[in-house]
Amino acid sequence: MLKDRMKPGARSYSFEFFPPRTDEAEEALFQLIAEELRPLDPSFVSVTYGAGGSTRDRTLRIVARIVRETDLIPVAHLTTVLADEAELSRIIDELKSSGVRHILALRGDPPATLPEGKTTIHDPNFQHARDLVELIHRRAPGHFSVGVAGHPEGHPESKGDLELDAKHLAEKVLAGADFVVTQFFFEARHYFALRERAIRHGMPPDTPILPGIMPVTNFAQIKRFAELSGAEFPAWLEEKLSVHADDPSALADLGIELATKLCEELLQGGAPGLHFYTLNKSPATRQIVANLDASQSRIG
Ligand SMILES: Cc1cc2nc3c(=O)[nH]c(=O)nc-3n(C[C@H](O)[C@H](O)[C@H](O)COP(=O)(O)OP(=O)(O)OC[C@H]3O[C@@H](n4cnc5c(N)ncnc54)[C@H](O)[C@@H]3O)c2cc1C
Known about the structure:
Blueprint: E1 12-17, H1 23-37, E2 44-47, H2 56-69, E3 74-79, H3 85-97, E4 102-106, H4 129-139, E5 145-150, H5 162-174, E6 179-184, H6 188-200, E7 209-213, H7 219-229, H8 235-242, H9 248-268, E8 273-277, H10 283-299
Parallel strand pairs: 1-2, 1-8, 2-3, 3-4, 4-5, 5-6, 6-7, 7-8
Helix pairs in contact: 3-4, 4-5, 5-6, 9-10
């Protein structure tokens, strides 16, 4: 199982994708996975799930195809927003029968308006990701290894109460999650502080927490993502990057250099691996992994 590849010092890499909208884009994604990312020996590849089920069929199809056509381990994201127990149970069953063994259990973000036919955002029994962790284990005892999300700078809804947010993370783990993947962030200290807080709130210290890495390759996009996720976009970073605001290639090079430094700091501080938000592109991720491998072989 995956947990073995997330032991301290494992230096595992994992890659996250979103399900493409067209058949052509799906083929291109599979090619990218097989030809460009497979050689990096990822511990897993994960496929996001549009909250409210907007990508349900595509997410399920892609993870099933990864099982059938590759030797990679897929992690299927699943969210509770706008879903009830019957629907979540059907999806869990389908993932099980496709041979998927890993789920990232999430709550998802509520939509701005309720879609037609829906009357509530959260089923009262599925208000939080922890409820999904419990359902997965009830529904398919012993089958799935479950991961959950961690928020190094606190989830935006926790409004700065980092302790409470970490307590909720510890509760998700104690409810049956085997590993944590974090929201992206730009300063390593946020990751280490989250780890300490969660352990203080009862999370077993050996729980693997994979830091989420989002290399900056597009200035406007990363600022928007940071605003949505609650990640602080530090002034020093903005200052460095804005020098290249009109030069996409120089900006991407600098983004890769800064992300490499962040990754090195995280691995040196004991992070068991790195989880890359690839946005379905590989150049930045591949370059960072190459930089890390080169610096590792210099040290080793
Ligand atoms: C690695 C990663 C992958 C993601 N993938 C997806 C995806 O595929 N699709 C998607 O739609 N979204 C995805 N998201 C976004 C995620 O769904 C949002 O951040 C969402 O708002 C919170 O999800 P969660 O699972 O952390 O929720 P929760 O753990 O339920 O936390 C949400 C808020 O509720 C609080 N809370 C938790 N438990 C309790 C409790 N028992 N009582 C009171 N308050 C509580 C928390 O402190 C937090 O403020 C991802 C996020 C990460 C970090």
